[in-house]
Amino acid sequence: MSVIPTSIQERLSKGELISVIAQDVESREVLMIAWMNQEALTKTLETKQATYWSRSRNALWLKGESSGHFQEVKSVAYDCDSDAILLQIVQTGAACHTGERSCFHNRIELA
Which pLDDT value is given to residue 2? Predict the structure, then answer.
């Protein structure tokens, strides 16, 4: 079993949510951003399937549970401030609820 670093545990034990970036392990494409609480992170580390905290549903959310578009976690890293996690994943199907591969399919034109 993986050990959650103390710096992350401290934030989560205060009830804070940690932002999570899901990145394709091969292409390095950023697919989505979500949130984790302590339970979501523990489940993700134990099962190697991305599990998030849904702020709108106020509940755990196994990515792909209803869509079949699971995220197999290949590596986990956290940033220097212990407030963001990077999951490198193998994405089955689309990451975005709209059916797009990435949630970042909308573009802003630069002048």
Answer: 66
